[in-house]
Amino acid sequence: MSMKKTQTPVTLRALSLVMAAEDEDWRDYALCPEIGPGPFFPEKGENTARARAICADCPVRPECLDYALAVEATLPRAEWHGIFGGTVPGERRAIQMRRRSAA
In the chain, what is the greatest distance between 2 CA atoms, to the nearest angstrom? Predict the structure, then answer.
């Protein structure tokens, strides 16, 4: 996978935020560390099926999604990147909006 220079800082920042999770217990059970970050940080337009399939089988998918939503709530939208909890940034934006509307 080749990475565009404009995406590299976003990808690395998003990955570092996940790696800096305060409560890392759930990450001990995640499937993605066995795979590596490649499928979870596709370039724009790349297929996300492999990452979504891995997430679908992951026992900590809900925790991963909740963590991504919490972290992304503190970041500008332009820095939302990657697949977390089986979702892409647009899907997480929709979840954030639904949660705000329900509150």
Answer: 41
- pLDDT, tens only, 27-47: 899 999 999 999 999 988 899
Break the chain into its structural domains and give their ranges.
Answer: 8-102
Q: How many residues does the chain have?
A: 103
Identity of the amino acid at 75:
L
Helices 61-72 and 89-102, packing angle to 10 deg: 80
pTM of the model: 0.73
42-79 in b/e burial notation, b at 16+ Cβ within 10 A? beeeeebeebeebbeebebbebbbebbbebbeeeeeeb
Cα-based torsion angle of the residue sequence 48, 24, 20, 73 in order, rounded to the nearest 10 degrees: 60
| Cα 84 from chain centre | 3
Backbone angles phi, psi at 6, to 5 degrees: -70, -25
- The pair of structure tokens assigned to 100 is 């705000």
Tokens coding 33: 């560390």
